[in-house]
Amino acid sequence: MDLSALQGKSAGFIWELMFTRSMFGTQDIARQQDILTQLAALVDAGRIRTTLGATLEGFSVETLKEAHRRSESGKTIGKIAIKY
Questions:
Q1: What does the pLDDT read at residue 12?
Q2: Closest CA to 9 of 51, 67, 52
Q3: CB burial of residue 63 (10 Å; 0-12, 13-18, 19+)
Q4: What is the pLDDT of residues 33-55, one digit of tens each?
Q5: In this model, does residue 66 exceed pLDDT 90?
Q6: How close are the terminal C-alpha atoms of the chain, in Å?
Q7: Is 20 exposed, middle or buried, given 0-12, 13-18 or 19+ CB atoms closer than 10 A?
Q8: How far apart are CA 17 and CA 23, in angstroms?
Q9: Which end of the chain is more exposed for a tag (fewer CB within 10 A), N or C?
Q10: CA atoms of 4 and 76, how far apart (whole Å)
Q11: How far is Cα 11 from Cα 60, in angstroms, rounded to an integer?
């Protein structure tokens, strides 16, 4: 995907990899299970929750404009994600 159109803009493209240990077969791969177990317990207990406010579908100019419009409105609470 060519992201050069985002250069010079206040935009970011962020990859979040949850399973890096398993992807790279690190020596502490079992730690991933511990982390996910702890995370599940915190979510189940209501101690943590997502900051996601909205998810827009499709990576397009129109979707980016809509995300930007919502962000500029001053009424958005939480993060806006674009599902590619």
A1: 74
A2: 67
A3: middle
A4: 898 899 999 999 999 988 899 99
A5: yes
A6: 11
A7: exposed
A8: 9
A9: N
A10: 27
A11: 14
